[in-house]
Structure formats: structure tokens, C-alpha cells
Amino acid sequence: MQVTQYIDHTILKPTTLVADIEQLCKEAVTYGFAAVCVPPPFVKLAKQLTDGSPVKVATVIGFPFGYSAVEAKIAEIVLDIVDGADELDVVINLIALKNNDWQLLGNEISHIMPVIRSKGKVVKIIIESGILTDEEIIKCCELYGVAGIDYLKTSTGYAEKGASVHAVQLFKKHLPSNVQIKASGGIRDYAFAKELVEAGATRLGCSASVAIATGQAAGAGNY
Fold it and tell me: Which positions are annotated as active-site residues?
């Protein structure tokens, strides 16, 4: 299986350097990855470095904990779109979820979606599946599936547990067919990447992308 076209080549560490972004974008273009996923301050640079290639530029919103106000998330989205982001990976308000405040979550997504849709951008919603129960995951599938998002994404890579085949299978079973699945967090080898794609993932968030593409062993890392 060729997995390169599924990969969002990712670097999101708080100490990211310009040189890291330059290397990331060069690798993404070389290997034909679907996108690069970079911290918001590097969106403009990543857009310049991938110009003329099919590689998309993604960034994160409310990352990594998701508890910023919806107004703050919208401000981030607007600024990132101005800088050239093609895809927005938005962390949901996990405090609201864990306190069973589904009304707040519904309000959050209903305010975010029109902003992203008005500019024709792709939205991926991160629910941090590794720290959720199956029941909570299913409720997320129902809420965000109805909201019309493009992708439901497993993880930020910063929780104690990242992507799992079980979570992807659960997404696949309970999401509408028009909503795709992004698995991320702890994907460090080709075998696991292949398992996730076979379970239903159509994007993979990885920092070990080159190792996965070339079949090499990857070291540990947040993403």
C-alpha cells in the first residue's frame, strides 16, 4: 500500500524553528504527502515553500487543549486563512465534553463552521479519542457528522493515548459517509499506518512521515 498520499506531514512542537519548517515542506513536496501541518505562526512560510505543488497547508486551532473561547478560535481561524491555510484542524472544548455540556459544543461548532465554509476551506475536528469513552466518541460522531465537517480527527498527539484502530473503526461505523477520518498521534511505522488506513482513515497526521514512507524505524515523539 502506498501511504504517502494519506499523510499530513506534521511538526507542532512549541520550539519549532524556521529550518524545521523548511525541511518539513521540502520533504512533503519530495514524497508527495497530502499536506504539511504547522504551527499558526508558520502558515505563511509553509504556503510560500509549497507554492506550485499539490501539497496543502494545514494548521491547528485551539491547540492542544481546546478550552480557549470560541471567539478566540474564530480569531485564530480568520488569521490563519488570511495567511493562506487550506485546512484547519480544530480542537474541541474537551472540558465541555467531559462535563457533558453538549450544548456548548454544539454552539462552538455552529459558530466555527460558517467562518471556514465562507472561505471554502477544509475543517478537521479533533476530539482526542484516546481519553474518551466509546459512548463519548459516538456522541461526537453524531454531533460533528450533522455539522457537516470534512474530517473527524482522533488526537492532538499530546494526550496519553493517540490514534487507535478501534477509534477509527468506531468513527467509520458512526459517521456519515461524507465525513472522512484523520488518525493522528503515535503513528511511527508503516505497519500501523497501513492498519489505520485499512480501518477507514483517509488522512494520517505524522511527524515520522519520512520513516513511514521509506519503511525505516522512527523514534518516539509527540506526533
Answer: 89, 153, 182
